[in-house]
Write a structure and sequence with these properties.
2 copies of one chain form a homodimer.
Chain A: H1 5-9, H2 13-26, H3 39-46, H4 50-62, E1 66-69, E2 73-76, H5 96-110, E3 115-116, H6 129-143, H7 145-148, H8 157-169, E4 180-182, H9 184-196, E5 202-207, H10 211-219, E6 223-230, E7 234-235, H11 237-246, E8 251-254, H12 268-280, E9 285-288, E10 313-318, E11 330-333, H13 338-348, H14 354-366, H15 369-394, E12 400-401, E13 409-413, H16 420-429, E14 432-433, E15 435-436, E16 449-453, H17 460-475
Parallel strand pairs in A: 3-14, 5-6, 5-8, 8-9, 9-10
Antiparallel strand pairs in A: 1-2, 4-11, 6-7, 10-11, 12-13, 13-16, 15-16
Chain lengths: 478, 478
């Protein structure tokens, strides 16, 4: 039997509220297209807190029963064709509310009518769409059989050769034969963790950290050990060193270049020290470099991998922040874990889609990548600077904003009185998505913080949305 | 620390042999391009059995140290550029020898100069390559931004609508909103198991069963409970029923249409009974239908999903056997586990590659799929019949061959004296790959069986290879 039976008897409060509302919908009391009771009304009727009510709506949304509409709250969704009862309530809660919020956040990111500050996704106009799609079309026309057949791990040699060249710019001499391609960095992270850990293991991560990392850890039954990060320099190595002396740590994940959400950048010496620290205890380091190609300055930092003499560093990255998220092309340099990672890849997805790999390889081979990167880096720098200024102007007094040196994320710390989940909800009702701080830790640490993604090119619409966010946050100060 | 330290002290015999040979290579005693000692010589020098020696070479091959060459045994590979020591020996053995053999099998499948009876992969000329690649090119040219952006789960609606239509032919009324797309059926299986099980759970599978299934179970720390399968009708429901009365079973995986490797086809009534049996105990059924579209007759069997009234059936399939393995497009109808599967998908790969999804959707929408399927089904029927006859003619007396009603796999049972691993090795040396029976069970059940994939169109080259296999098997009878 699945692990459902026990959890059903001890429903958390927000689920009870969601179930009651779901029943009203199932019974036809609330009909498709109708506005649901407001959050405030739900609080009053059920005697629950605002954040419980929000969680209940997030749950209903992820069950496909309600949808947020621009500036008007939640509405009952039309049922899926042919069936009234689907998608049904989950019988096996996979990862509790963290998971649900994660899913709902992505929903907000893709919803067409939303100003998407929520997901760390590049704006469509920041991607070389035309050239890439042209290349993919070309590859598809000329690849013949090769295009439809498996490109089994380690994946396209053409692409691995190009990646090998790129990695030299990060100071890492890596042969094509040391690289394995993946379906984006998400799969890369998953495969690395599978290769170096087993359920119950302890994995050191930065805090705050990308919720996707926390989610993968949860899915693999790993325990996250949150090491404080400095907004400028990333993971606090003094703390890590102390922790290593007293606690068991089985693996470490770091995002040394423009971390998510802080945008911190670890200095080269710190990277070297991190590698040495872990090396001493033979602890594998998973280096997530998805933002590595997006420094605001002219210099690309050295990868931790470049300091790795023992094969303990597993370097992960993708082209999802710089070229095409939808192509799903990432890679791993797994060091001494090559074999285990390759096996995990076979078990997980068997292969990476062939033609997108070839299109990316073609793009890199044509030689315009650096030129392209220069222009988007300048645009992101501009976006981030403008958004930072607008936030300092429009948000409640006492708000602070990170000053990243690359990437396109801002970490906003508001006065403690502001609750980020409430802000998330109110913003969504106005057609703006943000990532509430709650998501970036397993503990209730960042309840007054939000992450703002500046992936889209600066525009009056964006500026307006930042101003609206500020006004909403100010309302919470009263 | 990774789970390596303890296992290194208790190396299995074949690893010890592999390590010794690896050291000879590292020390330059055996140099790149040189022939390795023969299997026989390794047996003699190390006092090990032939199958241990074979396993040692499989291990060396998957470490990237040696490669088989057509008709001449194993040779030391040239080291990867820039480094001499990579890919290094795995420090974290992920899944023991099952995993290594699995990997090496796939290597054999893709090696250009090999007659590939080993992998269940369709022949290149059995796929609508030109049309598909043309469609992908078209989508890439016209999709614009949509082509490069995420298509987050549940995945392309256009594709889900087409899948919904196809599923009606299997008797299953499934709305597009009930479908989640995946990176092929491998990911589908993984996500379903994640959604319905937890480590330590017991999963009933057919025996013999596809080694990929055993491998995923092993990766998720699940225990396989092997239920005998009938070569004609698939999983023995009388046995399953008895087992359910006395043993804990947490989930069940069945391949009711043209199972892998037996090619068995479960009658409609048996499918209904299977669903009912599991329903009584609320046990989820994962239905793997990858060969479902390839019956030799005119009728497509009803999916178990079509009998599912409680949402306990998770239906998995892909287009890898019929359209394009390299596009990596599959899907799940997760029933009541919709939410958990969607969350797992977000955690595993975030999204399926957008443009391949759209190309497949376009192919289905254009309406030529059934026409195409008719022609390949006829070809597979012919391949399988001819291979079956050739095997009965050329293999040792007492050999039996399955008589599948669809798909393109044959299960060959040779006299007990023939060892399939030895045959695998000897065949590979002659440029022919097969899947040894050992792979299809966690127990030492099918040591005298092999699976022959008839995905490639029948040709004198194939006929020759079958004859060679038969002769090699006969040698073992002496």
């Amino acid at each position: 039997m699945p692990a459902s039976s026990s959890s059903e008897t001890q429903q958390p409060l927000y689920k009870q509220v969601a179930d009651t509302l779901a029943k009203l919908i199932a019974d036809g009391v609330l009909r498709a297209g109708e506005r649901t009771p407001s959050l405030r009304a739900v609080c009053d009727q059920h005697g629950v807190s605002m954040s419980t009510a929000v969680q209940a709506f997030v749950e209903l949304e992820s069950r496909g029963l309600v949808e947020p509409r621009h500036k008007s709250g939640f509405f009952v969704k039309a049922p899926a064709k042919g069936r009234l009862d689907l998608p049904g309530p989950p019988r096996v809660p996979m990862s509790g509310s963290l998971g649900n919020r994660h899913a709902s956040l992505f929903d907000a990111v893709v919803a067409g009518n939303v100003v998407a500050f929520g997901g760390a996704v590049p704006g469509a106009d920041m991607l070389p769409t035309v050239k890439l799609n042209r290349l993919l079309a070309e590859k598809a026309r000329h690849a013949g059989t090769r295009g439809v057949m498996y490109d089994l791990p380690p994946g396209s040699e053409m692409l691995r050769r190009q990646i090998s060249k790129r990695m030299m710019k990060a100071g890492a001499v890596v042969a094509p034969a040391e690289i394995i391609t993946t379906c984006g960095a998400t799969e890369a992270l998953m495969l690395c963790l599978r290769a170096v850990t087993k359920p119950g293991d302890v994995v050191a991560v930065e805090t705050p950290t990308y919720f996707g990392i926390l989610h993968v850890l949860e899915a693999l039954a790993l325990r996250a050990l949150e090491i404080p990060a400095d907004a400028q320099h990333g993971m606090r190595l003094d703390v890590l060193e102390r922790v290593l002396k007293t606690q068991r740590v089985d693996a470490c994940i770091a995002v040394p270049s423009f971390s998510n959400p802080l945008g911190a950048s670890m200095p080269d010496e710190a990277r070297q020290r991190l590698v040495a620290l872990l090396r001493k205890r033979e602890i594998p380091l998973i280096e997530d470099d998805v933002f590595g190609e997006l420094p605001f300055g002219t210099k690309r930092a050295r990868a931790c991998k470049s300091f790795d003499e023992s094969g303990l560093v597993l370097f992960c990255s993708s082209f999802s922040k710089t070229l095409a998220p939808g192509y799903r092309v990432g890679w791993i340099v797994p060091g001494r874990y090559y074999h285990a990672v390759r096996m995990a890849k076979l078990t997980h997805t068997l292969a990476t889609a062939t033609l997108p790999e070839l299109a990316v390889a073609g793009f890199l081979a044509e030689g315009g990548y650096d030129h392209w990167l220069r222009s988007v880096r300048a645009a992101y720098k501009e976006n981030v600077a403008r958004a930072g200024r607008a936030i300092l102007e429009g948000f409640p007094a006492g708000t602070t904003v990170s000053v990243p040196q690359g990437g396109f994320l801002l970490w906003v710390t508001m006065p403690p009185k502001v609750d980020a989940i409430e802000l998330y909800d109110r913003a969504l009702a106005k057609g703006i998505s943000i990532a509430p701080g709650h998501l970036f830790s397993l503990e209730q640490r960042y309840t007054n913080c939000i992450r703002i993604s500046c992936g889209e090119r600066w525009s009056p619409r964006i500026e307006d949305a930042v101003r609206t966010l500020g006004a909403l946050a100010k309302q919470q100060m009263k």
